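Loading example: each entry is read as two labelled lines plus one structure line.
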Amino acid sequence: NAGVTQTPKFQVLKTGQSMTLQCAQDMNHNSMYWYRQDPGMGLRLIYYSASEGTTDKGEVPNGYNVSRLNKREFSLRLESAAPSQTSVYFCASSDLLNIQYFGAGTRLSVL
Amino acid sequence: EDQVTQSPEALRLQEGESSSLNCSYTVSGLRGLFWYRQDPGKGPEFLFTLYSAGEEKEKERLKATLTKKESFLHITAPKPEDSATYLCAVPRSRNSGYSTLTFGKGTMLLVSP
């Protein structure tokens, strides 16, 4: 049972490049989330998807887009990467008790 | 605005030296307080949920308690393997009617042998 799987684990981009972070869960959860974690800032919510077919902004959505491809998959896209988007990105899904289960993270550097 | 504040930011203990971590929150109508553990280079891992003042939950050397304004994570006779960052979180209602979690910045615990 894999839980929440994120790819890639590491990525280096140049300013202006685009990329998509992939996330898949195998727990049949309705809700999924994307966070970024920066030193001294804690976990901040970028976007969430309460259920298949819906997405909503979190606290820091600027510069990002998301797609809830199906119930299992929720992707995060950076259209034109900026150095300020250097961070560790976590995907999570939650059960009916609102307990969130996290992936191992993607470490992104934008040069 | 709902806020979650954790203290201290960092805590260094000797093995066997018990202590407590604090999570204070300002939220109307608390619908649960969540504790997570995060090891370096990994995603947060769920520990406990507390729903009402006076509630306590235990797991090995950890005990979480809840009052109307704060939660404590008590660590009894810690071992080096308890070293991690501990995060607390509270639900936040969204305009969509859904609720997400607002996380504190965490307490980094280091237990030395």
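Residues 2 and 77 of chain A are 23 Å apart (CA to CA).
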